[in-house]
Amino acid sequence: MDKEHGAFAVPESIRKLTAGKAFSTDGVGMSKAQVMVFEDCVLKIVPYREKNEETVRVMRWLENKLPVPKVLCYECDGERQYLLMSRLPGRMACDAYYLERPDELAARLAEAIRMLWSIDVSDCPRVRDLDTELREARFRVENNLVNLELAEPATFGPGGFKDPEHLLDWLERNRPGYEPALSHGDLCLPNILIDNGRISGLIDLGDTGIGDRWRDIALCWRSMRRNAEGAFGGKVYPDARAEMLFDALGVKPDAEKLRYYLLLDELF
Ligand SMILES: Nc1ncnc2c1ncn2[C@@H]1O[C@H](COP(=O)(O)OP(=O)(O)OP(=O)(O)O)[C@@H](O)[C@H]1O
Ligand SMILES: [Mg+2]
Question: What is the pLDDT of residue 1?
């Protein structure tokens, strides 16, 4: 037990780099991740999953291409993975400052999406297309890993899908056309950092890779809506209409693709 780093014994290489530094813990995400924010770096500790190695690879590939955290040290002890990365400046896009300035917020979110789309993916080391996502969704459904409590009330039950298996069947049979680009994969407002009127950070790259453009649009649009509705903090921001994202992006909303990617997300 290493008191300085909480409940886990942090590998020596990482301990050396963080020893004696003060940190705060972060409670924004919903995962089992433990995030320690130091003055100039962030340590993220997650239960072991093979896909985290791919995340580190994609982060390294994106260095100097996008404002993503620099990987300072990565270790794995078979049970957990420890990622020490640089701390990026800025406030999260869900900060009250931006929700009170919806034009500015929509412009920055559109900028984040366009930054992703501007990346040449020909040598991107990771694919997160619909085949990959549906395969992972199938694994989650078959192993009872879908948390129904996190689903939108209308998704399952009367008028909706019977259960996750039913939804997965529908998703497999109703695949939309593919519009590939670099896709962040979890482009919600807390994963976008803004500083001085520009995007200063895209973080939480666990699902980043070549994927469909509408996956990011859908999750970003829903995140703006939920944050504006006060779903996380109680305060409501009626002027922050999520539709503003489409105007800022110059893209016509595709209701079917939005629905498809939000339904797919119910299985994760
Ligand atoms: N490199 C970083 N620079 C600045 N802040 C960071 C950085 N990494 C994480 N944070 C802060 O910690 C919060 C949580 O980190 P992160 O988004 O990586 O994990 P999570 O959302 O808890 O987990 P999950 O991987 O399951 O989505 C972020 O919203 C941000 O406020
Ligand atoms: Mg996050």
Answer: 37
pLDDT tens-digit map of 163-199: 999 999 999 999 999 999 999 999 999 999 999 999 9
Its pTM stands at 0.93
Q: How far apart are CA 226 and CA 237, in angstroms?
A: 10
Instruction: State whether the beta carbon of 70 lies less than 6 angstroms from ligand 1.
Output: no
**Residue 218: count of CB within 10 angstroms of its CB:** 23
Q: How confident is the model at residue 131 (pLDDT cuts 50, 70, 90)?
A: very high
Work out the percent of the chain whose per-residue pLDDT is above 90. Answer: 88
pLDDT 10s digits, 14-57: 999 999 999 998 766 566 789 999 999 999 999 988 788 999 99
Pocket test for ligand 1, best of 63, 147, 184, 203 (most atoms within 8 A of CB): 203
Considering the segment(s) 91-265 as one domain, its CATH architecture is: Alpha-Beta Complex (3.90)
Element (H, E) at 217: helix 213-228
How many whole angstroms from 71 Cα to the centroid of ligand 2? 17
Tokens of 70: 């620099």
CATH architecture type of domain 3-86? 2-Layer Sandwich (3.30)
- What does the domain layout of the chain look like in residue ranges? 3-86, 91-265
Alpha helices in 118-201 (DSSP H): 130-142, 164-173
> Any catalytic annotation for residue 186?
yes
Q: Which position among 169, 186, 195, 254 bears the catalytic label?
A: 186
Q: What share of the chain is helix, strand, coil (3-state, %, to 5)?
A: 40, 20, 45
| Cβ(9) – ligand 1 distance below 6 Å | no
